[in-house]
Amino acid sequence: MAISVSNLGFVAILVLYCFSISSTEAYDALDPNGNITIKWDVMQWTPDGYVAVVTMYNFQQYRHIQAPGWTLGWTWAKKEVIWSMVGGQATEQGDCSRFKGNIPHCCKKDPTVVDLMPGTPYNQQIANCCKGGVLNSWVQDPANAASSFQISVGQAGTTNKTVRVPKNFTLRAPGPGYTCGPARIVKASKFSTADKRRVTQALMTWNVTCTYSQFLSQKTPTCCVSLSSFYNETIVPCPTCTCGCQNNITQPGSCVDGDSPYLASAITAPAKNNYAPLVQCTSHMCPIRVHWHVKLNYKEYWRVKVTITNFNYRMNYTQWNLVVQHPNLDNLTKIFSFNYKSLNPYGAINDTAMLWGVKYYNDFLSQAGPLGNVQSELLFRKDPSTFTFDKGWAFPRRIYFNGDNCVMPPPDSYPWLPNSSPRQTISILGLTTAFLLSLAFLLVHA
Fold this sequence. Notes:
Blueprint: H1 5-24, E1 36-46, E2 49-58, E3 71-75, E4 81-86, E5 88-90, E6 112-115, E7 146-154, E8 167-172, E9 178-180, E10 184-186, E11 190-192, E12 199-201, E13 204-212, H2 214-217, E14 223-229, E15 232-236, E16 255-256, H3 263-268, E17 279-280, E18 288-297, E19 301-310, E20 317-318, E21 321-325, E22 332-335, E23 338-342, E24 352-357, E25 364-365, E26 373-381, E27 398-401, E28 404-405, H4 428-444
Parallel strand pairs: 14-18, 16-17
Antiparallel strand pairs: 1-2, 1-13, 2-7, 3-6, 3-8, 4-7, 5-6, 9-13, 10-13, 11-12, 14-15, 18-19, 19-26, 20-25, 21-24, 21-27, 22-26, 23-24, 27-28
């Protein structure tokens, strides 16, 4: 069937459109309902505005916000100002020259707010504040999955008929990645007193929902996976240039050798960029590598060793977590030195698990160096109807580190059983070449 040039053009445009959608899509198949919800509760009216409590709830199962923490911004609908704040602060005051006497905390049309640090005086705190912007994930640490601050707003409406909700909410954590929808007025929040005998409610409430996209967060991957097994001496490394390529000639300082005399100064300078990754020079150039080793085979069980290595000289990962997708996780019998929780993103199918360190033991993944790794072993029971070491079945389908999808090696490179081969050893081109050489030999010697 012939295809016209115009049809080919249409197909090309359609393919490009599909790629553009997939690259920015914030939907996460392993956490389909995950989001950060910002709840803005107006608690009382003031002569020229209101006092509100703003709370961020991290409803993501395994993605958290680590140091240096979240940054929240928005644009006022009218000429509002922030008179004062508790539990947070605006990063800039802005131009308050029109005010005489009492000067507002912030006069910017588009304020940016950050959390206060631990150790803040008690008279400047409210519940769930002052964690340096760190927001833990819902499954791993639900008690610390919320962050709040109180804000006194002036030059705003003084009733729920005259107040205008802010616009253009932005959430950085600490970099890009989150996209926030519009603020929507919802049913007023209700609160119980400490003795549970009285219920109060907000005067007005609106919600903002923010979703995460790894593509928006960082154009290059942040982690990769390597593989090995007891039945094959081959160690499959992370793909070359997974997270960038080593190029200290055109980009000096893009990576550092572990024995470099300039290592200490490179880690600390410049001070303002200490959170920018500075990775050890490797073929993959990733800050994090996850190694999956099929260790032992028993009659009714098999055993895997998982090692997470930090190649980033500027980052200590606290409250790290790993999400693994593997068909045998429904028969996970024992896990050593890690916490475990089944996620079940597909309902009845139990093939996804979240792993994280034990508090005060190995929940801290040190920066690159001799101590920059954590490891555990997983013991699986064999299901005779599904278990096999053939065709890469023993290796994970997907691995996430701290909510980011890690790059897996290509399937044809996986370690294979000794009695099988992952690829054809003689190609068609090789056979053709051999035939032509043989034919030429016969003609010469005829």
